[in-house]
Amino acid sequence: MSPAVSAPAPPASVSPLDVVFMPQAASVANVGRALKILVVVSVVISVIVNPRALTSWSDFAIAYGYTFMYSGGLWLTNGYAVGWLNRRYTWTERPGRRLLLTLAVSLGGSVAVILLMNAVLLLLRGRPLARLFSGDMYWALLLPLIVTVIISLFNHSRAFFFQWRDASVRAERLEKETAVARLDSLRRQVDPHFLFNSLNALTSLVEENDPARAVRFIRQLSQVYRYVLDSGGQELVPLADELRFAESYLFLQKTRLGDALAVELALPPAAALAPFFVPPLALQLLLENVVKHNTAFQTDPLRLRVTLDAGAPSLTVRNTLRPRRLAPGESSGLGLKNLAARYAFLTGKPLAVGEEAGEFVVTLPLLVI
C-alpha cells in the first residue's frame, strides 16, 4: 500500500506543507481534521490499489481498514518523528546526531510498520507468518518502503531547509542588532559631551598641578576608546575584559564627579570570571545610564553597586533611583531596548530590568561558551 498521507490545515502563520508533512502537537481540531483527511486519502488509495473490492462491501471494508492503518501508521511514524526530532535535535545545532537519529527513527519506524501491517494481512488471509520473509513478499515489503523513504526524504529535507533558513534569518537579525548597538555605543562614546566632560576634568587636574593623576586619567581615557574600537567587531567578549574597561570608565567618571559618585564592585577574583562572556559594551551602557539619568551631589552621592552571581550566572547593576530631566537629544531611549534585543538572539535568558526599594536594577545574564 502507498504510504502517502496528509494532515490538518495549518494556522495562518504556518505553511500548509508544514502541517501535511509534520503533524502538529495536537489540538482537538487538528486531530479531527487529520482524521478526516486520512479517511479520504485511505478511501482513494483503497479504490486505486484494489478496485475489485468495490464489488463487495466486506472486501472493501477489509481493504479500507488495512489501508487506513497502513497509511496512518506510516504518517505517525514519519510525521511526528520529524516534529519530535526538530524540538530536541535541530539540524543547525547537531547535524551529525540529527542525521543518525533521522535514519534510525524514520527508516526503522517505517520498516516496523510495514512488517507489522504485512503480518496482519497474512493473518487475515489465514497464511503463516513464515511467509513474511519469503521471496513472493519481496515487492510487498520493498515497494512501500521505497515510497516511504522518498516522502520521508522530502520531509526531512524540508525540515533541514526551514531550520537553516530560520538560523540564517536569526543570524542576519543579530548582526543588524549588533551593528545598531555598536554604532549607538560608538556614538555615545565619541559624544562631544562625554569628551568635553573628560577634557574638563583633565584640565582641572593640570590646573591643580597633579601630574600623576593627569597622566593616569589620560591612560584610562585612551583605554576606554581603545576598548570601544577593539570590541566593535565582536559578538561576545570575556567578562573580565568588560570589567577592566568598566573600571577605566568609572575612574573617568569618579575623577569628574568626585565624592558625588560612590561605586562598589563586589566581584570575585579574576580567575572566577574566566568562563563568562557578555555582549561588548553591555556593562558600559548600564554604567553610562546610571550617571546620565540620575542626579549626584557631594553631600548625597549617587550610589552604584555591581555584583556577580556565579550560580545564575548573572551580573547585576543597581543604583540609587534619582531621575533627572534630560536635555532634548541627550538620550535616544534605545540603549536598553537594543541590549535586550541582542540578548534575545544570543540566549533564552532575558535581560531583567526593574525597581527595588528605591533602586534601579538591571541584571545581565552571563553567557558560557
UniProtKB/TrEMBL annotation:
Keyword list, A-Z: Membrane, Transmembrane, Transmembrane helix
Keyword Transmembrane: yes
Signal transduction histidine kinase internal region domain: residues covered: 181-261
InterPro entries cross-referenced by the UniProt entry: Bact_2-comp_sensor_kinase (IPR050640), HATPase_C_sf (IPR036890), Sig_transdc_His_kin_internal (IPR010559)
Transmembrane intervals: 34-54, 60-78, 99-125, 137-155
Domain of life: Bacteria
PANTHER family: SENSOR HISTIDINE KINASE YPDA
Protein name: Signal transduction histidine kinase internal region domain-containing protein
Organism classification: Bacteria, Pseudomonadati, Bacteroidota, Cytophagia, Cytophagales
